Amino acid sequence: MRHHRGEMLDTTHSDAAPPQDEPRGCLFALSQPPLMIFLAVIGCLLLTAALHDLLWL
Questions:
Q1: pLDDT tens, position by position, 1-57
Q2: Are 30 and 36 in contact, with CB atoms under 8 Å apart?
Q3: CA atoms within 13 A on the CB side of 16
Q4: Rounded CA gap, 25 and 19, in Å?
Q5: CA 39 to CA 31: how far, in whole Å?
Q6: Alpha carbons within 13 A on the beta-carbon side of 20
Q7: Confidence (pLDDT) at 3
Q8: Integer angstrom CA distances of residue 50 from 13, 38, 45, 47
């Protein structure tokens, strides 16, 4: 079965596809694992620095 370019279905304007101009909020950004890992590392560093200042200095 060979398909030529003229016989392929055009799926770029499908009704089932979500709209691309839909705004995404802050909760979508925070649900991304790399961002959460980065924020957790920064939070741990800040917590470590704060505990160091409070307990050992």
A1: 555 655 666 666 555 555 666 777 778 877 889 999 999 999 999 999 999 999 987
A2: yes
A3: 1
A4: 15
A5: 12
A6: 3
A7: 57
A8: 54, 18, 9, 5
- Token pair recorded at residue 35: 């961002």
* Torsion angle, alpha carbons of 33, 39, 40, 43, to 10: -170
Please spell the DSSP secondary structure of 1-57, one letter per residue: ----GGGS---TT-SSSPPTT----HHHHHT-HHHHHHHHHHHHHHHHHHHHHHHT-
Whether the CB-CB separation of 29 and 35 falls below 8 Å is answered with: yes
pLDDT at res. 48: 97
